[in-house]
Design a protein that fits this description.
With 164 residues, the chain is α+β, with helices and mostly antiparallel strands. The radius of gyration is 20 Å and the shape is elongated. The strands form 2 sheets. Strands 2, 3, 4, 5 and 6 form a 5-stranded antiparallel beta sheet that branches. A two-stranded antiparallel ribbon has the order 1-7. It contains 6 helices and 7 strands; from the N terminus they run ααααββββαββαβ. The protein is 41% helix and 29% strand.
């Protein structure tokens, strides 16, 4: 494999660097040194060429409604059973009404890109995410009750404009 192909693979293994290349905010010499693939000047040149081929970020407004639902928990752990439909269910593990957590639910134009954006923003704000998922036109993140209000604001901001 060529050095250029190695550099592209190394960037794809580090999505934060791929995003930075797309945004045009990379110090190529520093990125080359960070990747440690060999000749830093040659790697920096390969990164410049790779960045030129990447699509730029395109901000995309989305129509999404965000709500908060307090008192959510794991069925079988936090609560015995719930008569309500689960807020989130993954491989038989369900979160439903009756527990110590808060669910933030976004409905509308959501997808995995929106979920990735939401999770990244929540991480940047040090909001703990206990569970998250997206299916159809619904996205849900479950957080500790005390972080519910902060998570609501982050999710509202994150889903209003997605940089795809």
């Amino acid at each position: 494999m060529s050095l250029a192909a190695d550099a592209r693979d190394a960037v794809r293994d580090r999505p934060f660097l791929l995003d930075a290349l797309r945004a045009g905010v990379v110090n190529y010499a520093a990125a080359a040194a960070f990747l440690d693939l060999g000749d830093d000047e040659a790697v920096a040149a390969a990164l410049r060429r790779f960045a030129d081929d990447l699509p730029e970020f395109d901000p995309e407004s989305r129509d999404v409604t965000v709500t908060m639902r307090s008192g959510v928990g794991l069925v079988g752990e936090d609560i015995d059973e719930s008569d309500d439909d689960p807020v989130l269910s993954v491989a038989g593990v369900e979160l439903a009404s009756g527990g110590p957590l808060t669910a933030i639910i976004a409905e509308g134009e959501v997808d995995t890109t929106a979920l990735a954006t939401v999770l990244g923003r929540l991480d940047a704000e040090s909001v703990v995410v206990d569970a998250a998922g997206v299916a159809g036109d619904t996205l849900a993140v479950v957080v500790p009750r005390r972080q519910g209000a902060a998570a609501l604001q982050v999710v509202e901001s994150a889903v209003s404009t997605i940089y795809a």
